[in-house]
Amino acid sequence: TIPVECSNEPAATTETDTDENVDASTTTTTEAAETDGEETEAPTTTVLNLGTNDSISTVGLGEVTFGMTVAQAQVAAGTDLINCAPTSDCYRVTPAQGPEGISFLVTESTIERVDIVAGPLTTRSGIGIGSPEDDIINLFGDQIETQVNDDSSVDLIFVPQDESDAEFRVIFTIRDGVVETFRSGRIPQVTVQNPCAG
């Protein structure tokens, strides 16, 4: 489960990511724009990069990839990432703007997992909340491993064939024959239901 209590403050940065800390949702720059042969200063604002057209892959969500610091992920997403309590070496952040139901797991100062618990986001193959279990089996075949959870839900674990993706997984949690939630990330964080517990 993903904590829903998030603070109203942007994610805290550590010494390792302070140099890159940019408040992406409010950054304004000026660029030269030409109008009728004259150069003028045109203000531009950082664009929200995290949208419903983004998809989950083995390496991240849209422009946000695993291994980024929170500050780098904020710039890539084009929005602040809000801390979800509690904050420690392992905690969650959620985008201030963008599609609903997104939570990123931060461990040792880097994004290592993304969970989707609601909303329209899907994998690159089109699998999302509410997709039938059979669609996943038919699509990925023997790349799927099955694990029964303590709460009687079932995890369908996509194991990539590419050697470069060997340390990543996409996991679909199935209840009543459909995807209830799904997540992607680096092993071991992605394989544990509650990686910050204990």
Question: Brief overview, please?
Answer:
By secondary structure, this protein is mainly beta. It contains two helices and 15 strands.
Features:
198 residues, mainly beta, protein yfey like fold, four-stranded mixed β-sheet, 2 helices, 15 strands, 8% helix
Would you spell out the secondary-structure blueprint of this structure?
Layout: E1 6-10, E2 28-35, E3 38-45, E4 55-57, E5 60-61, E6 64-65, H1 70-77, E7 81-84, E8 90-95, E9 102-107, E10 110-116, E11 122-123, H2 133-140, E12 144-148, E13 154-158, E14 168-175, E15 178-186
Parallel strand pairs: 4-11
Antiparallel strand pairs: 1-7, 2-3, 4-5, 5-6, 7-8, 8-9, 9-10, 10-15, 12-13, 13-14, 14-15
Characterization of this structure:
- This protein is mainly β.
- It has a single domain (8-19, 48-191), classed as protein yfey like fold (Sandwich).
- Helices cover 8% and strands 40% of the residues.
- The strands form 3 sheets. Strands 1-7-8-9-10-15-14-13-12 form a 9-stranded antiparallel β-sheet. Strands 6-5-4-11 form a 4-stranded mixed β-sheet. A two-stranded antiparallel sheet has the order 2-3.
- Strand 12 (144-148) and strand 13 form a beta hairpin.
- The model is unreliable at 13-45 (pLDDT under 50).
